[in-house]
Design a protein that fits this description.
The chain is an alpha/beta fold. The strands form 2 sheets. Strands 1-2-10-7-8-9 form a 6-stranded mixed sheet. The chain starts with 23 loop residues before the first strand and ends in a 23-residue tail after the last strand. The chain is 35% helix and 16% strand. Helix 2 (84-96) runs parallel beside helix 3 and helix 8 crosses helix 9 (218-228). The chain has helices at residues 55-69, 84-96, 111-118, 128-131, 137-147, 160-165, 167-174, 191-199, 218-228, 253-266, 275-287; strands spanning 24-26, 40-44, 74-79, 99-105, 122-126, 151-153, 181-187, 204-210, 236-240, 297-301. The structure holds pyridoxal-5'-phosphate.
Length: 324
Amino acid sequence: MSKEPPPGAEHPPLGTDSALMVPLQKLASAPVDGVDMGDVQVLRLDLAGGAAPGNKWFKLQPCLALARARGLRRLVSFGGPWSNHLHALAAIGRQERFETVGLVRGETSTAMLEDAAGWGMRIQRVTRAEYRRRNDPAWLAELSALFQPCLLIPEGGSGPEGIRGCLEIARTIRERVPPPARVVLAVGTGTTLAGVAAGLGAGFRVAGVAALKGASDLEQRVTKGLVASGLSAAASWEILHEHHCGGFARTDARLRAFMTEFERLQGIPLEPVYTAKALYAAHRLLQSGRWRDGLPLVVIHTGGLQGRRGYGWLAPEPASDFRG
Ligand SMILES: *Cc1c(COP(=O)(O)O)cnc(C)c1O
């Protein structure tokens, strides 16, 4: 079990403005697989958020505020054995002195769960059949009774709080990039996309790259999520469904080749589940000419780098020629 402090624990406490100093990095003019990616900037959420870098930090902030307002010190949530959400929850819980409970699907042990347990998260295994009931009000009522007093946070940090937390991501873009511009990000539950689309004004075009295959209900989930949060999207948005590269957490040879080449030339580490697919989609759409309309492009690096450890073909740190 890891006794190490959460990565970035030496950073200033969460909740200060410094956690929101998100670097916006311009890509080097080095063609990746023959395509100069041109006027592309990457919003490095992987370098923000202190102990829990990436979009999960933003999604969790309103949950922490809600728990504090209700005087609750225990946060309970759900995830698979490689869940970035549970990993972030454990890191933030330790730093902000909340007790955390992770209800984990199945029995697989992973480096991510070891980190989480090392930071004090109580890992409670649930069967796949139980896990399927994660949105069933009857099971949620049982869990609240079992862990009370607690705040139950939906899988992946989705829900109205998660969406509202991502308005901050949009703010950091608006402050630095004038419209019109295209904003690209990877999509799991669609929560981050909903918050970003709601927080950006007219003139922004948001393209979400689905990390899952055949997630045809995503558009509806985003629309419903916005309504439930009392928000509406001023920016136009769409979900691109053809860049999953084989399905959730899967890769194909072309994605692996792109990712290795991109990291080497650009010096920006990616991971295969989300961020590599977002950059690869941008690369393909630039290559095909579909996005050669001159709109400046901002790709949101949503973090998740701790998940690289799940892939034997990847070194924990990427190889890089980059000397920028
Ligand atoms: C969770 C996650 C996403 C997906 O976010 P959603 O809000 O669920 O769409 C994207 N990238 C990374 C690195 C993540 O961990």
